[in-house]
Amino acid sequence: xxxxxxxxxxxxxxxxxxxxxxxxxxxxxxxxxxxxxxxxxxxxxxxxxxxxxxxxxxxxxxxxxxxxxxxxxxxxxxxxxxxxxxxxxxxxxxxxxxxxxxxxxxxxxxxxxxxxxxxxxxxxxxxxxxxxxxxxxxxxxxxxxxxxxxxxxxxxxxxxxxxxxxxxxxxxxxxxxxxxxxxxxxxxxxxxxxxxxxxxxxxxxxxxxxxxxxxxxxxxxxxxxxxxxxxxxxxxxxxxxxxxxxxxxxxxxxxxxxxxxxxxxxxxxxxxxxxxxxxxxxxxxxxxxxxxxxxxxxxxxxxxxxxxxxxxxxxxxxxxxxxxxxxxxxxxxxxxxxxxxxxxxxxxxxxxxxxxxxxxxxxxxxxxxxxxxxxxxxxxxxxxxxxxxxxxxxxxxxxxxxxxxxxxxxxxxxxxxxxxxxxxxxxxxxxxxxxxxxxxxxxxxxxxxxxxxxxxxxxxxxxxxxxxxxxxxxxxxxxxxxxxxxxxxxxxxxxxxxxxxxxxxxxxxxxxxxxxxxxxxxxxxxxxxxxxxxxxxxxxxxxxxxxxxxxxxxxxxxxxxxxxxxxxxxxxxxxxxxxxxxxxxxxxxxxxxxxxxxxxxxxxxxxxxxxxxxxxx
Length: 617
Fold this sequence. Notes:
This protein is an alpha+beta fold. It is built from 17 helices and 21 strands.
């Protein structure tokens, strides 16, 4: 019975899983031309520049005085991130994560920090609705007296950018960075611009061309847009699909919008008034291996807040690490997909805290996973023991079950009725072996959801796997196998072999099931092979967890078998039979249920025998 439910549980997992799933051109130096030609060329360039200047000023309207200038950069950094600002737009130009690298950098051992935001692939416009048309602040030149620098831990530092127009008219943008962490505050204030602006929303338009940071390109293409509705703090997202395009119009106020990649996150968060509405889009660029996906969020901001000094926002540029982001903003921790909601408590209150504790003990994550398995498996040992004892009872009853089969023949209904009567006579519930197994299923599902989203394993090596957060590959095939891929994961193979070994061991100790439409013992060998296809491209850390878990489970079963005396169990069953027959022991709920069902069947049979017409009906 235990074997049947284990296989059923694994099939359930698979059903949920399957439902689930540079260019730098060399510069050519021009040949020296005669002096006349050089003068003519200079004149031409000057003429074009003049035309461009006129066009820029015309487009800027009342902000024409700030349309021309020279961009200057300054840097603000702490121990975690480095932020490059530009006076062109008074904006963030680039953000580097100091402690993280892309997979290519990691694999080639070229230590380069990961660039999470860059104007080369992040396009941000901040449009103000003026009486002469929209003006993008990021195309206007600001001035600054700030110097930037390194922020000490426990401190914070500001940089300010100012755009002055006529007397009393100005735009000020101030950024604040703490001495640690990945949050950057942005405060925007408009002063004296009432006569220049229309009573409409300001628009923040953000586009990111996602670059691959991980080994698996398909996983990289699952980047998406997440958001939180302000009113009821309802988290939602565009579907994480590696193909096609997803789009949604959000007409309700939002607290924040984030661009979520595999292990990294960029987010725009409101501190006062919410985002009024937004249009979000995620489009996979299936033929592009550089800009693999395009994420877009067009957001409407309340202009009144910008005028009153309440334009207070935050940007998050950093790892999608639950321990770091859970307190950034309401619901922001949901950017990490820890688990399905039904299993979330197990992940949040068991696995995450355990990981945090074990990380203080183990620096090697392979050893950490082994320790995690041991803790979980020994915590579940009472259930494993109970399931084994129930299976032992079924083995003891097997001769009587075989006798029933010989007596009633191939009549499945009669077989089942006789079996239920036997279980009631000895006080055994066949479900007692299933419940402990099913109780472990949430743990299996929690692991399956957590490991692919756990940044802790990123670029952590163990044995032959140089990165436990992605698949380990010991060989690359010259062809691709459907649902399997073009590589061979050794940890997945070991998991498969150990699952088959466990199935074999279990089959030797599990009684044959009568009246089953499928040979469940054969399924114990088929299921691991099917599961191998599912797991081959998933994180090596997860395959290793299941492999170690299988070994520990087999060890527990062998150990329990030495302590379980089946002769004593048989004696207990016989004693139960006598007591139940004599009415000297209270029947279990299952026995009571069986008795009622048996009486109902007997009454029906008597009625049919007494009145043949009812039998015909």
